Amino acid sequence: MTIATTELVQTESVQTNPVRWRMAEAGLWVGNHDGCFAGTIDQHGTHYYVRNQFGEYLGEYAELSAAERALEAQLIPMPLSRQHAA
């Protein structure tokens, strides 16, 4: 006789911290994610230009909120050893 059992495994959803934005100067926002540099948004006229934490150009957007979302969607997580280095 074979008895089949089912094990219930509970998983927790992992929620990452959002990017925190700070206006470094007029027209320039700097993002921080888990203590690491996340990238920049640079405003020229009515457009917002996004670069990730490596300085790679991600695009041009008509609204600041769209630029923020674009960077957050393409954020490359840094290894823990880099995040908490002294």
Topology:
Blueprint: E1 20-25, E2 28-33, E3 36-44, E4 47-52, E5 57-61, H1 64-73, H2 80-83
Antiparallel strand pairs: 1-2, 2-3, 3-4, 4-5
Short key terms for the protein model shown above:
86 residues, alpha+beta, 5-stranded antiparallel β-sheet, 2 helices, 16% helix, 37% strand, globular
Describe the structure.
The chain is α+β, with helices and mostly antiparallel strands. The chain has a domain at 20-79. Helices cover 16% and strands 37% of the residues. The protein has helices spanning 64-73, 80-83; strands at 20-25, 28-33, 36-44, 47-52, 57-61. A five-stranded antiparallel beta sheet has the order 1-2-3-4-5, with helices on one face. The radius of gyration is 19 Å and the shape is globular. Mean pLDDT is 82; it is low at 8-15.
Give a brief outline of the structure.
With 86 residues, the protein is α+β, with helices and mostly antiparallel strands.
Major sheet strand order: 1-2-3-4-5
List the secondary-structure elements in sequence, H or E: EEEEEHH
- Please state the overall shape, judged from the principal axes of the Cα atoms: globular
Estimated structural class: alpha+beta
What is the number of helices?
2
Strand content: 35-45%
Low-confidence stretches: 8-15
Work out the number of β strands: 5
Helicity range of the residues?
Answer: 10-25%
Radius of gyration: 19 Å
Average pLDDT works out at 82
Largest sheet: 5 strands, antiparallel
- Separation of termini? 60 Å
